[in-house]
Specification:
This protein is α+β, with helices and mostly antiparallel strands and 308 residues long. It has a single domain, classed as Roll (putative xylanase like fold). The chain is 31% helix and 19% strand. Strands 3, 4, 5, 6, 7, 8, 9 and 10 form an eight-stranded antiparallel sheet that branches. A two-stranded parallel ribbon has the order 1-2.
Length: 308
């Protein structure tokens, strides 16, 4: 579908002024409108600025804390992987102090905020399908190159590779529909966005999966990126903020340079924004599933991390 850029911009809803964009890519039958306080915009900028100096690793460096099945630290102390980097940036965006950051991070890392390895959000696909807040996926169906594919998550393989003997939260949600823009069309699609920051999840290609599938099973959305859109000319300036586990640090690149370098890894990309209002302190009681997982973990021997 071809869309005149000027007409498209007219129907885009308001974004977070210069930072968090809540404007979805839309067609004339579906619109998402929201505004975000200026203070949230400023906190995102501050969180991103701080995040530029953290160390990145492929390892899952965080656990649930001392006395838990995975006794690695529950909160970061300088080193993160790509997924916890994004969760940490989001937590810092919504919080005002260290205690609030920890509370927000618990809600982002664990389903219903209930802390256990089995309630942790291990897969981006599952996270987005079961409890996405505060993430909101943009409707990209108006862009050229829009595709969908189905992913079947293999929780048994994942648990076996980590030698975990309990259930994971909501294992029944294991068939995931992934909606995305193919890599060759992603730049053109992003050029239609208003100024702001967007969350980007790449869609794993065969080359990406060949070294991880034997431990994780199939995955759709992998890695975590942010996209900064600025428009000081007729054409948008698009910058990818990449928590690179290969480089061990956060790197900024022009989107064309990033896409060229990642062509062999990713089949496409998705876009998300942040909800204008997210109360991470809202009370969420344990349900039977989380209670059973937490009780089961108490009976497990302390985890010895496999060398994967």
């Amino acid at each position: 579908m071809n869309i005149d850029r000027r007409e498209f911009i007219k129907i885009l809803p308001a974004s977070i002024a210069g930072a968090l964009a809540t404007a979805a890519l839309v067609n004339t039958n579906h619109k998402v409108r929201a505004t975000v306080p200026e203070s949230l915009q400023n906190r995102l900028k501050a969180a991103l600025s701080t995040s530029m100096h953290v160390s990145l690793t492929k390892e899952d460096v965080l656990g649930e804390g001392e006395g838990s099945w995975d006794s690695h630290p529950r909160y970061p102390s300088g080193t993160l992987n790509c997924m916890t980097w994004l969760q940490w940036v989001i937590a810092k965006t919504y919080s005002k102090d260290e205690d609030e950051t920890k509370a927000a991070l618990d809600r982002l890392r664990y389903y219903r905020g209930q802390v256990a390895w089995g309630t942790r959000k291990h897969f981006i696909d599952h996270w987005i399908s079961v409890e996405a807040a505060p993430l909101r996926q943009l409707d990209l169906s108006a862009c050229d190159g829009f595709l969908e594919k189905t992913i079947h998550l293999d929780f048994n393989l994942f648990k076996s590779s980590h030698r975990y003997g309990c259930r994971l939260y909501r294992e029944d949600v294991n068939v995931i529909q992934v909606k995305y823009i193919v890599a060759d069309s992603f730049r053109k699609c992003c050029d239609l966005l208003r100024d702001g920051h967007y969350i980007v999840f790449p869609v794993a290609g065969a080359n990406y999966m060949k070294n991880t599938v034997r431990f994780t099973g199939p995955m759709g959305l992998v890695h975590s990126l942010m996209l900064r859109v600025t428009r000081d000319t007729a054409r948008s300036k698009l910058t990818i903020i990449n928590p690179s586990t290969d480089a061990g640090k956060v790197i900024e690149k022009d989107i064309n340079e990033y896409l060229k370098g990642s062509r062999s890894l990713f089949d496409g990309y998705t876009l998300f924004t942040l909800d204008q209002i997210w109360d991470f302190n809202a009370s969420v009681p344990e349900d039977d599933a989380t209670k059973q997982i937490i009780a089961c973990e108490r009976e497990l021997p302390c985890r010895t991390r496999p060398g994967i």
